[in-house]
Amino acid sequence: MATPPAALVDAWHRASDDLGFVVIAPYTPQDDPKSSCFAAKVKNFGSSAGTVVDWIGSGNSHEWVKQQGFYVSTVNAAAYEEFDASLFRETLDDWGWTGDGAAPGWYTGRAWS
Asked: Which CATH fold topology does 6-95 show?
């Protein structure tokens, strides 16, 4: 099992604190038969189950988490290891708000594609 880069995990914590969303970082799903360890689990974005953040080159299998209803986003760790509010907002906008109630005030819902 690969360990997520510490700077990537830290950046997701900073983003959570700054932008006001719920994150578990790092994230190891309890029942995953592959015992994958992901950089983060972001609640209320991507799908009703949330988004699992992986990084390029981790070697993690996404099969089990997708079966559980998670959206999976594989990011370039070098681009996300330093917190850049604009990049993280754009990423969360792209994934889409799936939470109950109102989205955060900064949320635009603009997808990249």
From this structure: Endonuclease; Chain A (3.40.960)
